[in-house]
Amino acid sequence: MTYMPVQPDVSFADRRRAAPDEQAISDISPWEILRGIWARKELVLTVFVVFMALAFFWVNTVTPSYTVETRLLLEPRNNEVSNFDVNGAPAMPDAETLQSEIQVITSRPLITRLVTDLNLDADPEFNPAIRRGFFGGRKNRPTDIDVVVGQVLSRLTVYQKTASRVIAISFTASRPETAASIANRLAELYIAQLIEQRAGINNEATKWLKNQIEELRVKVRDSEAKAEAFRSASGLFLTNGSTLPQQQLTDLNSQLSAAQADQAEAQAKLINARQLLASGNSVNSAAEVLQSPLIQNLRAQEVALRAQIAQNSETLLPTHPRMLEAQANLRDLDAQIEKEVRKVIDALENQANVAAARVASLRASLNRFQSRMSKLNQDEVTLRALMRDAETNRALLESFLKRYEEANARADVDMRTASARIVSRAEVPSTPSFPKKKSALTFAAVAGLIFALMVAFLLEVFARGFRTGEQIERATGMPFLGLVPELGRKGHSTRPADEVIRDPYGGYAEAIRMLQANVLTARIGDRRARTVLIASAQSAEGKTTTAASLARMLAMAGYRTIMIDADMHRPALPSALGVPPQAGLAELLTGRAAFHHVITRDHMSHAHVMQAGARLPNPTAALASAQMVSVLAALQQTYDFVIIDSPAAMSAADAQILVRLADVTVLNVRWRKTSRRVVTRALKMLSATGGQRVGILMTRVNLKRYRRYSDASLEAYTPRSAQAAV
After folding, report:
1. pLDDT exceeds cutoff 90 at 128
2. Domain 12-20+477-725 in CATH: superfamily?
3. Which of 85, 267, 461, 702 is least surrounded, with the fewest CB atoms within 10 Å of its CB?
4. Model pTM greater than 0.90?
């Protein structure tokens, strides 16, 4: 954003005017913001230095804290008596188990145990009741263990390491030794609690198993006794894997089958022998006959006797006594053989009868036994049920005993180990985790710079007033007439208007001279503008000083000039010129005084002055009267320029009346102070009454700071002595 001073050839009538743009009032280009921030570099540096000083003080005075970490590894729980009925490998801890164990570690009972174990209730860091007060005395309040536990929990963080079975126990304390001891001790107490819980579970499970085993033993004994008693009562004794009635039935069936086979065999032999006798065939060839030892002996004797007869027949006649004796012996042998055959047949008949009788007897016994089998079968079903109950109870008892003995044998050793172990113990840290001075100061430097820039940015964005002439012209659409520098106190009069006389070539005088050039070039049709209204939106914007300075500058240039103080609410012209109050415009308008009574000469120039005079009840009506028009017409015939000091446009309606009576209006705007919206509203009020020829003069400008906002040359506002020195 650049500012170019208005040259003398540019006047009110030479500028194209536009209605003020509300959007343009708030729009600021990025370049303007950067220039504005650069203009406030002292503020940025001051804010940055203060921020860094506070950060440095805080880093060096804040109590440091040390953070340590102990890591636990959760392992599967196995070899517990309570899990004696679980087969296979133990399950690994899942995410829910890990989160549950984290809740156990941060539980109040375990933390209370930690507080008691390490006597943390006697440590002022965790027990506010024993901390020293602001003046060094201790607070005499009872110790509340819940408060201490809460303090410990507020410094404790327990979390799961990503995608692992590792639980990290992080603790923060003001002393590194305390932090490490608390983290490690908490892990140890957690493991000890797991061991205690495991031992308790094993004891309860062992006790329960013992009771169950005793009950099963009683059940086995009772069920076996019932089975044996029923067996004895029913006679269903076991023999070779089956009951006695079944064995007897089987034996009877076997005996009956054998007896029937014997009967069939005896009948077959008897029938065969009878058939041989009935057919006339010799039964000597029957198997039973041939098998008889006696018959076999007789047959051998017969064979031998016949051989002897055959041998003797070769030498002896049939009538020979020896031959006759041999024949007689042969006949006796045949008779004996036949007798023996008859006996064999009789024996076969007896054997067949005996076999038939035995078969009949066995069949009768089998029929009687089968009639009893229906009841025996029912008894056997009952016996099997009793035996199954006994076997089931016995198998369950044996399973309980086996699993109990196995698990209890391992539990003696494994119950002293927990399902978690410490894989990394906390070490005493050498550097604090908070604050990290280097990082903190680096962050403070960045944050301080950003904060300082933000402060400057916000001040620049929300700045109330205008900073350059270009901003004024863009926001208001009115011509920028120049700027009036701020006069320092040292070496200058308390009245700025005196500067145009005391130092006619100074920066202030040059600024008024620039305004004079714009007034001299202003045209109203074919004539020069002669009535100049000096107005402002608010009070304390230098309008009276500007009016007095412009009147003196015109008078010094040889123009007949009169300055009228039309601010009847707060007349300021006497103090601006250093003259006492007297009658003025009020008396002239009311007819209580004539021109020669109210017009005086400025004591430092050739300009004439008309003060406001006494206060009127309705100054607005007086200024809008025909008398005021006549007064201005008369003054324009006498003077070349009439400079009117107007009341503030936002505080009185007088300015709206005067702007219609003046040829041109100079609206004073205080640099960086007067709100942009106030200026816009004042311009709207002045334009609504027909005052179109309005220019804006920026007053009380700090030239040194103005150069930061604008690239324009300010040589015209620089004292010539300073230019010569340069």
Report:
1. no
2. P-loop containing nucleotide triphosphate hydrolases (3.40.50.300)
3. 85
4. no
